[in-house]
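# step 3/5: fold
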Amino acid sequence: ALAVDGNTQERREHAADYTLVSSPMKLRCKNSDVLSTEDQVATNGDDDVEPYRFVYLNNPLENAKLKYIGNTITTSRYTLFSFLPKVLWYQFSKLANAYFLMISVMQCIKRISNTDGFPASLPALTIIVLIDMVFIAMEDYRRHTSDRKTNDIPVHRFDAANGIFEERPSRSLVVGDIIKIFNREVIPADCVILGAFEQNPDQPRGICYVETKSLDGETNLKMRQGVECVYTTLRSD
């Protein structure tokens, strides 16, 4: 869940206008649209009906029972323990490397070897494989570094116990968390808009503008609007 804020300075001037709903509020979603807060879904016996997705706001214990995935981003391919076996499998799945490995093995058999049992092709093959492994390791290290930076992006998550927004790394977000995104900040997860900064508090519209160039390359701002029953409730409560 997402509470969007349009401007930091204006937000401070109108801080009293913002209230958030915590548990036991629960959203029932289908196709990314908030439908209701009921616990059960009437399917009328139709097995083809897509099941709804329940999200408990600010209730990580209930959401944990639903086994939603976390918010950690992983683009790296290898770990410290899986690097060697995976890279060796990748290297010798190449036809050229597999061919020269077979030649090296056959050269070790003196009866059929023309090198007196010495694998003459093995040193060159080893050097080629090692150089390739070094480049793969460097590339994957950069992936790990990028993942750490992305997962450590600070996010303002609402703490229901203290009633304030606390700064947390984006990797710690779970489904159902309420977060506040300031102007020009990166959106750290798939979100549902709960509310936005309103220039006219008496007529809330729940509208914000987002840039999606990291997804589709477009730099023009796109308008996004929350569900009316949600952002009006946030303001009235």
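# step 4/5: annotate
The first helix runs from residue 8 to 13.
# step 5/5: archive (pending)
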